[in-house]
Design brief:
The structure is a single chain. This protein is α/β, with parallel strands linked by helices. It has one domain: Peptidoglycan recognition protein-like (Lysozyme-like, 3-Layer(aba) Sandwich). 23% of the residues lie in helices and 20% in strands. The protein has a 6-stranded mixed β-sheet. It has a two-stranded antiparallel ribbon with strand order 2-6. Strand 4 and strand 5 form a beta hairpin. It is globular. The two termini are 23 Å apart.
Length: 176
Amino acid sequence: MSAGGWLEGVRRVESPNQDERPPGTEITLLIVHSISLPPGEYGGDSIEKLFTNRLDPDAHPYFREIEGLKVSAHFLVRRDGEVVQFVPLGKRAWHAGASSWRGRTTCNDFSIGVELEGSDDSAFEEAQYLALEQLLATLRRTLPLRDIAAHSDVAPGRKTDPGPGFAWGRVLSRLA
């Protein structure tokens, strides 16, 4: 990891949608999300534009619905396995929203957000699993990560991602 919380070897696109974590907060949770923009479509730069507040609301009808949304994640894993980092590890990305995990609220304070390019109702690519597993191994060497959860786990009833197509058994067995 380079100075400032940026991982080496991954493309960096800094998001303005970040702020300071509460002082002394340990980063113990990794939250897995899924995203596609427009919904169900892959490729292109719409996710990066969303996370950097440059999404053109006239480019697609759905973009009007999310106009003005200020969100980010620490990482995006593209369908081909490319990893893009938007927020340095020491900063708080705006990915989980209203959330709780094991009695703690405001999960953004103590978590890393990883978005997989995909949707709740489709399978993820082998390249994404390989990249996620490598990313998890790297993060576990530098952070006191103790838990991994779905966005749907920390925001039940509000979020459903990464959805039933995500192979939890595979990912968790590789962490053991």
